[in-house]
Amino acid sequence: MASTDQSDTKLDWRRHRRPILLALAIAAFNQLSGINAILYYLNDIFAAAGFTGVSADLQAVVIGLTNLIATMVAMTVIDRVGRRPLLLTGAVGTTIALAGVAAIYATGQGAALLLPLLVLFIAAFAFSQGAVIWVYLSEIFPTPVRARGQALGSTTHWVLNAAISFAFPVVAQFTQSLPFVVFALAMAVQAVVVWRFFPETRGVDLDELAARLSA
After folding, report:
1. Which helix or strand (DSSP H or E) is residue 108 part of?
2. pLDDT at position 54, please?
3. Within a 13 Å sphere around the CA of 197, how many CA atoms are in the beta-carbon half?
4. CA distance 166 to 131
5. I need a surface site. Which of 102, 107, 123, 181 has the fewest CB within 10 A?
6. Phi, psi for 73 (deg, rounded to 5)
7. CA gyration radius for the chain?
8. Distance CA 102, CA 33 (A)
9. For residue 1, what pLDDT is reported?
10. Could you read off the pLDDT of 5-16 as tens digits, one per residue?
11. What's the start-to-end Cα distance of the chain, in Å?
């Protein structure tokens, strides 16, 4: 009975550099959008813009429904449209929305636009990287190291989630606009990185893709 070479099941920087970098990038950009920090502190975000507790709660419900609907739509089109187009579309949408939120807090004007902008942000995120990340992580690594690669991406995702969620309220005490400026810039960078470096994985044989990324 043939034994499995243990070295084949280990992530190796020389052999798996490209999928490792892709996994780190998609996980990092997912959290650098500010998605979880925004969801965790949604009522505080509305309160800082002058909304009452009741209206903030109602608007949080709108945000949640938007997230659900956009995610369901993304799940129905991801295999028809592809991963890369969804990521690019979402990066542009989230950049615009986050820049608008940053402008509201920086100028103190246009608070009425906060809800539409956050709805746009949630819709763009859920329609793109919110749905794509876990699919993409499962496709870019060769089969022998797929579990380890997914674990690397997942760990990066949740570590950054904790770090950003902790830092968000601390920074927001001093400047409410800065976190959204950082998030918007990260999404603008993501659009360039995805356009330049991310391969499309839809309809591509996984072994063929693994060979291409390891070349």
Report:
1. none
2. 57
3. 16
4. 24
5. 107
6. -65, -45
7. 19
8. 13
9. 41
10. 555 678 888 889
11. 30
What whole-number distance in Å separates Cα of residue 114 and Cα of residue 38?
13
Exposed / middle / buried, residue 21 (Cβ in 10 Å: 0-12, 13-18, 19+): middle
Do residues 153 and 137 make contact, with C-beta atoms less than 8 angstroms apart? yes
In sequence order, which residues have a C-beta less than 8 Å from that of residue 2 and are 6 or more positions away?
none
Given a contact cutoff of 8 angstroms between Cβ atoms, the answer to whether 61 and 89 are in contact is no
Specify the pLDDT at position 90: 96
What is the pLDDT at residue 3?
Answer: 46
Residue-wise burial string across 86-124, b where 16 or more C-beta atoms lie within 10 A, e elsewhere: bbbebbbbbbbbbbbbbbbbeeeeeeeebbebbbbbbbb
Whether the CB-CB separation of 29 and 190 falls below 8 Å is answered with yes
- Number of Cβ atoms within 10 Å of the Cβ of 200: 12
Determine contact, residues 10/145, Cβ cutoff 8 Å: yes
- Tell me the torsion sign for CA atoms 13, 20, 37, 196: positive
Which of 139, 107, 126 lies closest to 65 in space, CA to CA? Answer: 126
CA proximity to 121, closest of 138, 104, 143, 141: 104
Report the distance separating Cα 133 and Cα 71, nearest Å. Answer: 12
Residue pair 62/176 in contact (Cβ under 8 Å)? The answer is no
Rounded (to 5) percent helix, strand, coil in the chain:
85, 0, 15
* Separation CA 140–CA 150 (nearest Å): 9
